[in-house]
């Protein structure tokens, strides 16, 4: 569930994510359960739950898994989880935000700090890197849904703030409060469900990194995401096409 500055960064790690599918489903289930427990178990009346289900479906999570996660909240069997956010620096000072859901604050804090330290990073204080990111809504459509100009016009008409397109995807960005309205308008206009729709932390000025740094940062992100309590990792960096080609060769 990493949030990087460009889709090519995500695509590089797709194979690793596929290998972790069951663990990812567990994370999606936890988010769905927490969302249903904190609000209405009806996704139509609970925006957070609706987005959690949308994200899980986009990752091909089975409907039965989704239903069980909601039922767990309704039945009162769900554990109590705290939402904690950690901030820090990766190799070469790359800013990183880590979102977690945990039933043990001390364990999670200690684990996240250790992962940073073992992978060339340092966990910082709250607010140490948050100012380097914007909290926004993000809607992802595959590139073949529409050409860049058509998507740009449709997104702006729907109330989006910006669109970034590349050969893989269209990313539509919104104010956090506008995400649901823009999502609904785009689905009506395009007649297609997006690949994902969620609130994210988007780097303001991604730092360009070389091949060695990119490898180290991705190793750190992988290690963080492998922790059961970690839900999402955002890293504020960018990789050139040349470096990405080398990374894919190494993969």
What does this structure look like?
The protein has 251 residues and is α+β, with helices and mostly antiparallel strands. It folds into 3 domains: 2-74, Integrase, N-terminal zinc-binding domain (Arc Repressor Mutant, subunit A, Orthogonal Bundle), CATH 1.10.10; 83-131 and 205-250, 2-Layer Sandwich (Alpha-Beta Plaits); 133-203, 2-Layer Sandwich (Alpha-Beta Plaits), CATH 3.30.70.980. It has 10 helices and 11 strands. The chain has helices at 7-12, 14-19, 21-38, 47-58, 63-74, 105-118, 148-158, 179-190, 211-225, 241-250, and strands at 2-3, 82-89, 95-102, 122-123, 133-142, 162-165, 169-174, 196-203, 207-209, 230-235, 237-239. A hairpin with a 5-residue loop joins strand 2 and strand 3. Helix 3 (21-38) packs antiparallel against helix 4 (47-58) and helix 3 (21-38) runs parallel beside helix 5. The radius of gyration is 18 Å and the shape is globular. Mean pLDDT is 88; it is low at 1-12.
Brief synopsis:
The protein is an alpha+beta fold and 251 residues long. Helix content is 46%, strand content 24%.
Which helices and strands appear, and what pairs or packs with what?
Layout: E1 2-3, H1 7-12, H2 14-19, H3 21-38, H4 47-58, H5 63-74, E2 82-89, E3 95-102, H6 105-118, E4 122-123, E5 133-142, H7 148-158, E6 162-165, E7 169-174, H8 179-190, E8 196-203, E9 207-209, H9 211-225, E10 230-235, E11 237-239, H10 241-250
Parallel strand pairs: 1-10, 9-11
Antiparallel strand pairs: 2-3, 2-4, 3-10, 5-7, 5-8, 6-7
